[in-house]
Amino acid sequence: MLTDEYRYKIFKLVEANPEVSQRELARKLGISLGKTNFCLKALIDKGLIKVNNFRNSNNKLAYAYKLTPSGIDEKANVTIRFLKKKMKEYELLKQEIENISQEVRHDSH
Amino acid sequence: MLTDEYRYKIFKLVEANPEVSQRELARKLGISLGKTNFCLKALIDKGLIKVNNFRNSNNKLAYAYKLTPSGIDEKANVTIRFLKKKMKEYELLKQEIENISQEVRHDSH
DNA sequence: TTCATGCGTTCAACAAATGAACACAAAATA
DNA sequence: TATTTTGTGTTCATTTGTTGAACGCATGAA
After folding, report:
1. Which residues of A23-33 are buried (b: 16+ CB within 10 A; e: fewer)?
2. Is A93's CB within 8 Å of B86's CB?
């Protein structure tokens, strides 16, 4: 399942390091290789990321994942969406902590 | 899967309203009836909650879920554990929001 | 008696995630 | 050159977690 969390993180990681492998991506995302492949391919299929084969400094064939122009746009959108979601979570969490703290104080007195 | 979140919420809901049905519990927990039954039974099997059959004011047979003495102890423990977990989440979330906010500011300038 | 309601319980079906296994290409080694 | 090793993306059977319709049962209502 491809959520904004993974959209955001994949865009960010790929932009920072286009030569990242799917295995390393999986490790950094904290998810399995299979899911990483699924999410990444979804972004590729939508034309937001493209795959380049290129020769690196050692003349070795390597993969590079690059954000397309629409991918760059989408990264900005997703980042804002994800941030807003996190800020909402933050407020809810703050309230929940206050509520539980009050329960704890109340129960122990 | 029975996590501290549901342990905490079930203890709290059952203590506040022992006559709650599993369907109402499910609704308040925001999970399915099957999962509610699974979690509640786990707490019953551990001797933390006991089931009473009793006659209510209309002489109708009804169920009541009551925290046992060890259940009351465990509720206090779980509440503290859950609160600590939420406070850790809170700090992580705060940091994450700061990081993303900075990215957004940086990218748009 | 018969029907309707509401209870806990079950479990087939679904959804999501995993990671071992695979085909392939390049590099390293014999 | 030929062979083995390494590292890539890809696949998919398996596992894990969740759902909610369906069931048996007990009570109240008709």
Report:
1. eebbeebeeee
2. yes
